[in-house]
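Appendix B, record 7
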Amino acid sequence: MTPAPRSDFDIGDGYAKTCDPAFVAAAVECLSGLGDNLTANKHFAGAERIHKHGDPANGIHSLQIETKQGLYMDEVTYAKRPEFEKVQTDLGTLCCLLSDVARSVAT
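Structure tokens (predicted):
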């Protein structure tokens, strides 16, 4: 059986344990709205680091955003692919949105 192909981005919050759900919802809405293929908690639900530091009940939110390398670079030569700039722009847009979410969750 062939495994399912990886999504371009996988958003991980340790199955809703490491950050407010607003962060995941914003990331999914943003990246999918930009035309990116993504999953949440499918390939990378969250490494030990986000579980160690995430404590949403005390205002500490930890989100993992895993990016498929082949999306932005040749995985053999490590050369940038033409899509690099789109990925860079999309992640910049996401960072701005997540900053807004952080401010709204903190109030």
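Remarks on this record: The first strand starts at residue 9 and ends at 12. The chain is about 40% helix and 10% strand.
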